[in-house]
Amino acid sequence: MRLLLSLFFLSLFVHSGQQPKNSLFPYEDIKTELSQRDQQYIESLPPQVVYDWVQVPENYSAPNDEKIKVFYEHRLPKKTNKNKRPICFFYGGPGLDARASIPTLLAMTKEHGILIIHQRGTGLSSPLPQIKSEPDILRLKQYLSRAIVEDAELIRKKLFAQQKWIVTGQSFGSLIIQRYLTLYPQSLYSAHAHGFAATSLPTPFAEARIRKHKEVLSQYLKKYPKDQKRLELIALHCAKHNFSPVDNEEIIISGRHAFSFAGMIFLSAPDYWKDLSQFLTDVCPKNRVNHKRLTHWINNFYFNKSFIYLGAEQDALNVVFNRHEAYVTKSGQSLSQYYQLIIDKLHAEGIDTQTWPMGEEALMHFCIDSPIHNLADTINLGKADPLLPKAIAASLNKHPDLKFHLYAGEIDSVAPPETFQELKDTCGDRLQLKILPGGHDSFLSPLFWKAVYRYAEEEPAP
Questions:
Q1: Tens of pLDDT along 114-140?
Q2: Residues 385-410: tens digit of each pLDDT
Q3: Is 253 exposed, middle or buried (0-12, 13-18, 19+ CB in 10 A)?
Q4: Among 78, 156, 364, 444, which one is least packed by beta carbons within 10 Å?
Q5: Residue 18 carries which DSSP code?
């Protein structure tokens, strides 16, 4: 009897999150369509989480064609009256799994509550389309900021009707917020964006990243001087070896900067410098590279479908994003050509990236060889869809009550603060720009969230 009672009470907590009773996709009906990991995630949601899937068109310009599902989870505040306005958070990417960001985010927001949309193609939303031909690459344009804003607006209306909400976001999420400002400013009470700022064309973003990376790498090596030798040994080792996922030899990462992407991620967040140094010590003990450890680490970092999978659909999405929204290459110009021009320009100034022990993402791009990556790099994507400062400024000027706060990390080599000034100058006093101590992870600073919660807890206008 005691065992039966235990099983009964346990069953009460197997599926704790709340799903609307009128959902188009009741969890029990679609459970078998989900992976074991997705099922475990749903069944581990705490009781104060309201979740659901909404059906949306893959292409909003053709709403009657292919449909996909987008998942959201609304983590309610501990006290029901804590927030007077809902808050939505857009995480980085594109193509990253929401579950990679949620644990650190919840540490900052659990008292106040937050709504997180699993951006189309990620997390528990419908996956990215499989890439088999050029038309499939073109479909990836429907998985960028414009469509994600449309999804978010649909969810806002579903949950909050005409109530305005507060949007927050980091990195790619910052770009989504700035796109939101141009598309649906009337739906926003305030916007708080960290880690990306729109620039005019041609964008200085890629060049600024390489210059900032040089500066940050120098700061890191001053703090951990012994890692200079370790990084150089790893770079030399990578120049002599290829790395592929265990189940797909068509994807090859090679060259002395094969480790660069991982290095860029760690260097951009000073709180992780200690972890990077420990990793380098483990991989290169006694000034000798442990090939097995390095291979294991690269496989877990680069070929982890829960984080990033270089050479596959997620990587192709990033290439399309860079060419179509962030860097915006000229018609007929591949991303590789675009990067090479920048590297050649810097080399003429005496900045020789090939001598660096650890490079920036632009250098990592040259290390990837795979059918999908190469197709995404060279295919004609058609008319680009850049996000321009003048469009953001125009929208803010038409909506004088909308507050826009923009944040940059002081030593952020992913989104250098030097690139934020143009947007500030264009928007004038309609934009509040703040440079935070730290790097790309400084959105976790209490300084960022203090402003968010101030707006959330203000009394709504009568």
A1: 999 999 999 999 999 999 999 999 999
A2: 999 999 999 999 999 999 999 999 99
A3: buried
A4: 78
A5: B
User: What count of other Cβ atoms lies within 10 Å of the Cβ of residue 421?
Assistant: 13
Q: How far apart are CA 125 and CA 332, in angstroms?
A: 33
- DSSP-derived letter for residue 355 is G
Provide the pLDDT for residue 83: 62
CA distances from 440 to 172, 200, 328, 433 (A): 11, 22, 22, 15
**153's tokens:** 């607006």
Residue 205 CA: distances (Å) to CA of 137, 209, 227, 275, 324: 24, 6, 28, 27, 14
Residue 57: cis peptide before it, omega within 30 degrees of 0: no
72 C-beta neighbours (distance < 10 Å), count: 24
Mean pLDDT, residues 155-179 taken together? 96
The answer to whether the Cα torsion of 430, 435, 439, 441 is positive or negative is negative
Helices (H), 48-168: 102-109, 134-139, 145-160
What is d(CA 180, CA 184) in angstroms, rounded to the nearest whole number?
6
Distance (Å, whole) CA 346 – CA 350: 7
Collect all residues with Cβ–Cβ distance below 8 Å to 204 and sequence separation of at least 6.
419
| Backbone φ/ψ region at 326: left (φ over 0), alpha (ψ -120 to 50), beta | alpha
The two three-digit tokens of residue 290, written as one number: 């442990």
User: Per residue in 403-458, pLDDT tens?
Assistant: 999 999 999 999 999 999 999 999 999 999 999 999 999 999 888 998 899 998 87
Its pTM stands at 0.94
Please, what are the domains in the chain? 15-200+386-457 (3.40.50.1820), 205-378 (no CATH)
